[in-house]
Design brief:
By secondary structure, the protein is mostly helical. The chain has eight helices and no strands. Among the domains are: 37 residues; 52 residues. Helix 2 packs across helix 3 and helix 4 packs across helix 5.
Length: 142
């Protein structure tokens, strides 16, 4: 990071405490070549603690890229998704309460239906052939 030269405008779009790029991390890991943290920090315009932390964390990185953030856990696990899809394939007309009860998940209706839409199971069988009611079935048999 090159310091700002005198009389040069301050970049208002610049951000502090941004993540280091993979290329820049490689430059910092020059520590392996017998350079001290302070010398690497002075060379790149960083603090020695950033350099030390980056060198220590290098083994946790995948090909120089950061590990993914933890984030919020998914409401439906892969097993829950498979169970819901199995229920829908068995009974395309199953209601939301039936799906939740049979799959054992506690996810809300919106979550289940958005997952089904993403998996392309949105009214897929019910559109092809509507549910046959008891009185219509009796007429067919008569």
């Amino acid at each position: 990071m090159v310091p700002r030269t005198p009389l040069r405008p301050i970049n208002s779009n610049g951000r502090r405490n941004t993540e280091l790029t993979p290329k820049f991390r490689v430059k910092i890991t020059e520590h392996e070549f017998e350079l001290s943290y302070a010398k690497i920090a002075a060379r790149h315009g960083l603090s020695a603690s950033i350099v030390q932390y980056t060198v220590e964390q290098e083994r946790l990185l995948r090909d120089g890229h950061s590990m993914p953030r933890s984030g919020r856990p998914k409401a439906l696990t892969e097993g829950d998704k498979r169970a819901v899809i199995r229920i829908i394939k068995r009974d395309p007309f199953a209601g939301s309460d039936d799906i939740r009860e049979q799959s054992g998940t506690t996810a809300c209706n919106k979550t289940i239906f958005s997952m089904l839409r993403d998996e392309k199971y949105d009214h897929w069988e019910a559109q092809k052939r509507p549910r046959l009611k008891a009185e219509l079935a009796a007429k067919r048999l008569a």
